[in-house]
Amino acid sequence: MSQEAVSKLTPDAKTGGPSLFARLTRFDEAGLLLGFVFLVLLIGIPHPEFFNPGSIEATLRQTAFVAIIAFGMVFLVAMVEIDLSISGIYAVAGMSMALLIKAGVDPWAAVCVALLAGTLLGLVNGLLSVLLGVPLIIVSLGTLSVFFGLNLIISGGLAVFGMPRDHSFFQIVGGNHFGLPMTVWITIATGIVLHFVLWRTRYGAQVRAIGSNTAAAKFLGIKVARTRVLTTAFVGFLAALSGVLTLAFFKASEPTIGAGIELRVIAAVVIGGTSLAGGSGTILGAALGALIITLIDSGIVFYGIDPDYSQFVTGVVIVVAIGLDRLAKRRKTS
Amino acid sequence: MTREIFSARGIGKTYGATVALDNVGFELRPGEIIGLAGMNGAGKSTLLQIIAGAIRPSAGELTIDGRPVQFGSTAEALREGIAIVSQELSLFSSLSVEENLRMLKGRRSWPSRSVFRKEARKILSELGFDYDLGRRLEGLSLGERQLVEIARALLQNPRVLILDEPTSSLHTSEVKRLHDQLRRLRDLGVGIVYVTHFLEDLIDVCDEAVVLRNGQRVASPDLKEPDSLPALVAAMLGDDPLADPETEDESDHALEGYSFPEGGPLVISDLRGASGFAVDGLEVKAGEVYGVSGLVGSGVSDLFEILFGVQKPVAGRVRLPSGVPQQPDPAAAVKAGVAYLPADRKTLSLMQRQSIAENVVSVRSLAQGRDGIVLDRAQTVALAQKRCDQLGVKLATVEQKVSELSGGNQQKVVFAKWLEAQPTLLLLDDPTRGIDIHARLEIHRIVRHLAQAGLVVLVYSSDPGEIIDLADRIGVFVDGRLAGELRGAEMTEHNLLVMMNSTKEAGAAPGPETTQKLETEGLP
User: Fold this and answer.
1) Nearest Cα to B408, choosing from B379, B371, B445?
2) Does domain A55-333 have CATH number 1.10.3470?
3) Which residues does chain B have within 8 Å of residue A206's beta carbon, measured at their own beta carbons?
4) Which terminal CB of chain A, N or C, has fewer other CB atoms within 10 Å?
5) Taking CB atoms and an 8 Å limit, are A220 and B365 in contact across chains?
6) Distances from the Cα of A110 to the Cαs of A96, A113, A149, A185, B497, in angstroms?
7) Which residues of B touch A (CB under 8 A)?
8) B275-321 pLDDT, tens per residue?
9) What ipTM describes this predicted complex?
10) Domain count across chain B
11) Range of the domain at B360
């Protein structure tokens, strides 16, 4: 038995440390980073205007709206759960905030209400899932429709314009600082904090433990149901945050805003390398995944591809990206 | 005398240096039921798998009608008329009863649907299974599934039928019907090999016993003689009990550095569970190892589940060693100092995809929150390393995945994990199942050290010898009640098996429909 264990010695445990090159290729997100660079060059070389500050800014902002929700989804997927209703929460949060502002509420107060509403909707998801004993993906299939319906009801099916763009909220949150949109800074900060939460805190370890082996987690004395509810509420908060940031930039909301964003978020998480088997997750991967999805969209625009083809191309690139990443990982582990 | 339909001659099987079977032979005549008996590891399963064509023998030959045969697969054995009802259910839970019955390896063509149904219904109703054939298996109890499995074997019109512990989940009435059916098949000239840990069944239904001990066939008593149970138990155990010299001094992993909170005794009075479980006046002192033993449904699992907060008692009082009453859920039980080590390490104990270090600290930092909100990785690794050294876990690095360890080392990680939780009550459910002998002795040593450190230890084992080795005294459960206790010199495997097997005269009122059986595998 000791032989068996010793043979599992990793190379660096024997030699005292891998070379820089080995460390770079062993880095989990290395394949993704390569894919990202490849896409950037693929678009940027024939179309140098892609590197214009305005274009970079737009790409990063679009990425941020997806990435900030994807960070939360990493926690759910690490627990072997998926929330499909985030786009509904995203829409309700933005719309309710816009309506409150229209009704004369101060934007800073409206933000708090919108974020609270998103958290509550997430909480509803979690509670339903736990109380009914049904996986979140099933519950959220229903609540997705409920939340979108709610959005149509509160908006009366009409778009909302005319935000007070000179108000400090829209100036600060909707504006640029140190060369980048505030949205991007908030996303980066959220990503760093959540990476730390997932890998260095008790809560993060509980999430990964539950995803790794739910039965064992219960037998350890982990409060599995509570952790699940907490996480769905927290994902609701992030979806609302994304919706609020979207409003801060566009200064308008429409009834169908956010439709389909849940699939982009899940794609970002999966492309990022978070295993659907649970027990693990990568925030950095999710960020790169979101970037890659945005780049595909940009590429379609820059190459002037017929919009009819764009969905098809997006799908193909996602499948290829996942395939390449898994191939790279398999080679690494063998 | 009729000629045998099947025989095994000089069967041997070695795995490397390990001899699983050595020169075992027996003959099976038409209309005969042979009972195969032996303790765990005696070689029963190996012999059955050879007969069923699942593995090839290293030596010896099998014959059918006197003609030598070699099976490359179970399908080939089936074509020769040998059907096996295996211990591991091999049914598909999302398919209907009928669909499951149709999935037979050996049979190439089928009668029409209506003829098949008629045949299937007849066999099922003879077994006492009166359900709709269209019912899906997942709605059936374990016992009902076992009947479906048996029916599937019978549908193949076997000449030789092998039953590997078919009654472990059956009710008394179902067992009786199965036995009637076996006798009917016997009268039709089928040869049957019946394997069971339930020795009363074996004596009841079999014509002859084949007893294996340490891979060899040993002399067995005549089952027709009255009171053959003790003789059968003696044959299974052998004259000299397995002597494992306790080499206490060799690489003694003292549990220095582990400090345990002071605990009192475990006191249970008038405790009642939902399924007729009842224990009154049980007190286990701090530092005592209390063995629990019993048959299927005898209450051992109820006791563990209630103490760990998985099952809610109907009535009664429990005082845990930490001084608090029974807790409503595992999370609370863990906080109250209860540590439960389930038999199923893979699915219930360890997070296989996480590192050794994460597993070691999992209870203290995740459930108890003793390391605060932010976890210090360096501290985690150092702590795990220290604990693994103390318990003698053989590993490359504590950051490797726990699934890369051998079974014995995995179990030591489970111990390390629970010791970090600073328990005052340790519930051990088959702590060395599937673990090699050396690791097993090390784990025994750990358990003794823990008792010396003042913990209350409750241990169940599928191996009666292990309970006797470890326990200071043994409580035997019969029909959900604590039927008796063995202490000191009374603690022999013989007494234990007889007491577990002792039925109504033990003084306990039997619950309705409870199977009164000897089961030595799995927590009853």
Assistant:
1) B445
2) yes
3) 366
4) C
5) no
6) 8, 5, 21, 21, 73
7) 330-335, 340, 342, 347-354, 358, 362-363, 365-369, 371-375, 377, 394-397, 400, 404-406, 408-409, 417, 436, 439
8) 778 888 889 999 999 999 887 667 888 889 899 998 888 888 899 99
9) 0.73
10) 3
11) 350-421
